[in-house]
Design brief:
It is built from six helices and two strands. The relative contact order is 0.10. Helix 1 runs antiparallel to helix 2 (37-72) and helix 2 (37-72) crosses helix 4 (96-111). The chain is mainly α. Helix content is 58%, strand content 7%. It starts with a helix and ends with a strand.
Length: 143
């Protein structure tokens, strides 16, 4: 979350410096903005376009980080530091690229209902979250 906030400020502050302050002028008698909705939208669109592009790039980096490390290293850097590895449910082998992609999609699905799919690990007898069940994977601890 902190990284997302830092990126937002890094993208928004230079864009805000380019905004024309007159677009935010308020009529003193009515308290309403002098600019129309279309004028405000046109003034703010470049700023939000940059923000969405930055967030899109960060989302792609996050997906690449997880998928590549799950597929070829057996786990993310944090998982590896804690002695955990992601393995195939069927034979205990490495999960490979496509199963890592499926696991990442399952990870997103597990987040949608307020993270319940991730908390499911604590309720499941095999300690699998929804993303593990979707991809046919499980996490093991190295000895």
């Amino acid at each position: 979350t902190i990284v997302w906030i830092i990126v937002a400020f890094a993208v928004l502050l230079p864009a805000m410096a380019e905004l024309d302050p007159s677009i935010f002028a308020i009529d003193r008698t009515t308290g309403l903005p002098l600019a129309t909705n279309e004028q405000m939208s046109a003034a703010l669109a470049p700023m939000f376009g940059r923000l969405f592009a930055a967030y899109g790039a960060m989302a792609l980096l996050l997906a690449a980080y997880n998928i590549v490390l799950w597929a070829w290293a057996g786990g993310t850097l944090g998982q590896r530091a804690l002695g955990m590895q992601v393995r195939r449910e069927s034979d205990g082998g490495r999960i490979g690229f496509w199963r890592a992609c499926l696991r990442f999609i399952g990870y997103l699905v597990a987040w949608i209902p307020f993270g319940i799919g991730l908390l499911w690990v604590g309720l499941d007898p095999r300690k699998q979250g929804w993303h593990d069940k979707i991809a046919g994977t499980f996490v093991i601890r190295r000895a």
